[in-house]
Specification:
Elements: H1 2-19, E1 26-28, E2 34-38, E3 43-45, H2 47-57, E4 65-66, E5 80-85, E6 88-95, E7 98-101, H3 102-106
Parallel strand pairs: 4-5
Antiparallel strand pairs: 1-2, 2-3, 5-6, 6-7
């Protein structure tokens, strides 16, 4: 009986864990709306809000919002910038001597690289 109870608890906990989205998991509706799971607040927010919350937890956007990148000589490892292009925005993080999409550094959901300006930041 004890083993059966342990097995039931394990199955239930695995089922609950499988239903809880991971931090940074993106969902898209058939109407084109995007949301990302923020595990800290246990909410779903728009991707840009997710990025801003991430940056705020780390002290805020280092370089703010801009349509141009700052001079390389002025940038430090893990600095952040919300790049603004005609297609939208994308959170960038300076990592290993170059600007990268924050998702490529943090490894949230791959869908972030399809959102807003992210597919276009290196064009």
């Amino acid at each position: 009986m004890r083993h059966l109870l342990t097995a039931v608890i394990l199955v239930v906990s695995l089922a609950v864990e499988a239903q809880t989205p991971n931090h940074g998991q993106v969902t898209r509706t058939d109407k084109g709306l995007w949301s990302a799971r923020d595990a800290t607040t246990q909410t779903h927010v728009e991707p840009e809000t997710f990025w801003l919350m991430y940056a705020e937890r780390r002290g805020g956007l280092t370089w703010g919002r801009s349509n141009t990148f700052p001079n390389y000589k002025d940038v430090k490892e893990h600095d952040t910038l919300l790049i603004e292009l005609d297609q939208g925005t994308c959170l960038m993080e300076f990592f290993h001597t170059r600007w990268r999409r924050a998702n490529d550094v943090r490894r949230w959901d791959d869908a972030f690289n399809e959102y807003g300006a992210c597919p276009y930041v290196f064009d």
